[in-house]
Amino acid sequence: MHPDLSPPLHTKEHNILFNLLKEFHTKHSVLKFYGHWNDLDREMQKWLKRGNGERRAKNRAFGEAE
After folding, report:
1. Could you tell me which of 40, 46, 50 has the C-alpha nearest to residue 16?
2. Domain limits of the chain?
3. In sequence order, which residues have a C-beta less than 8 Å from that of residue 17 and are 6 or more positions away?
4. The whole model's pTM is what?
5. Which domain of life is it from (predicted)?
């Protein structure tokens, strides 16, 4: 499951990336099964995973402080 992809929560560059991927998946519904744009999708996954790790570390620190 992806974290919240709402535009106000991310940078302008990431919002452009998200919109490009959404547009690609809607316009080219068959090509997505043949691996087009997989590199871009992997980069998005890495970015989201890094953000999740940062959020987990912040929450852990907050929990340990109590």
Report:
1. 40
2. 11-65
3. 40, 43, 44
4. 0.49
5. Eukaryota
pLDDT above 70 (res 7): no
The pair of three-digit structure tokens given for residue 27, joined into one six-digit string? 């316009």
Tokens matching residue 46: 């890495």
Q: How many residues does the chain have?
A: 66
pLDDT in tens, 21-34: 888 878 877 776 77
Q: Say what the pLDDT of residue 48 is.
A: 77
CA distances 54 to 2, 35, 61, 63, Å, are 15, 29, 11, 14
Q: Is the pLDDT of residue 41 over 70?
A: yes
Amino acid present at 45: Q
